[in-house]
Amino acid sequence: MTSLVEIDQETFGVDVALAYATFDNLAGRPVYARAAAFLHPDAARCLARACELAAALGYRIRIYDAFRPREAHDQLWAVRPDPEFVADPAQGSDHSRGVAIDLTLIDQDGRPLDMGTAFDAFEQSSYHGSTDISQQAQRNRFTLLGIMTAAGWRHNPNEWWHYQLPDARSYPLLSDAEANTGLA
C-alpha cells in the first residue's frame, strides 16, 4: 500500500476546492466520495515549496484536483474520451500516480486570478501559451508557471492548471484501495 499525504489548509495553507467531489465538473456529478486532496510524499514536498513561493508574491494556491484513483479516472474517461485533455486509462493518468495536481492562484481575499479560461475548459485557449486571452491572464499564467517550475513541477502545455512531477511515469498507478484514501 502506498502512503499518500493529505493536502489540507492547516498544513499547506492551500484552499482545497476539489471539482470532482462536486457536481461542477465534466462528469456532472461527484466522482469522489469525499473532498480531500492527497499527493505522493515527493509531490507534497514540491507543493509545499510552491506554496512558499506563492506566499512570497502575496498569493495562495487553490487545488482543483490531486490524486485521482484509477476508478475515478475511468469515470472521467467515459464522459470525455479525449486524450488531448483526459489521459487514456490504458496509459494511466499522472493524477492516478499521486504526482499530478490541478490548481490556480488566489489572492489574499480568496479570489482566483484571471487565467483566461475556467478550470477544465477543454479548448485551445486553455493551452499554456495561448495568446487568445488577455495580457493580464497571460501574466497570471506565467506567474503560476514560474512558481510551479521553480518548485520542481513540469507543466502540461494543453492545460494551464495541470502540473506533474518530471518523472511522473516512474510512479505506479494507484487504485483507491491501494492508496487508502476513501476518494472513489
Topology:
Blueprint: E1 5-7, H1 9-12, E2 15-16, E3 37-39, H2 41-56, E4 60-65, H3 70-79, E5 100-106, H4 135-150, E6 154-156, E7 159-164, H5 176-179
Parallel strand pairs: 2-4
Antiparallel strand pairs: 1-3, 4-5, 5-7, 6-7
Helix pairs in contact: 2-4
Question: Any descriptors?
Answer:
184 residues; alpha+beta; Muramoyl-pentapeptide Carboxypeptidase, domain 2; five-stranded mixed β-sheet; 5 helices; 7 strands; 27% helix; 16% strand; globular; metalloprotease; D-Ala-D-Ala dipeptidase activity; Zn_M74/Hedgehog-like; metal-binding
What do these coordinates show?
With 184 residues, the chain is of the alpha+beta class. The chain has one domain: 2-Layer Sandwich (Muramoyl-pentapeptide Carboxypeptidase, domain 2), CATH 3.30.1380.10. 27% of the residues lie in helices and 16% in strands. It has a 5-stranded mixed sheet with strand order 2-4-5-7-6, covered by helices on one side. A hairpin with a 2-residue loop joins strand 6 and strand 7. Helix 2 crosses helix 4.
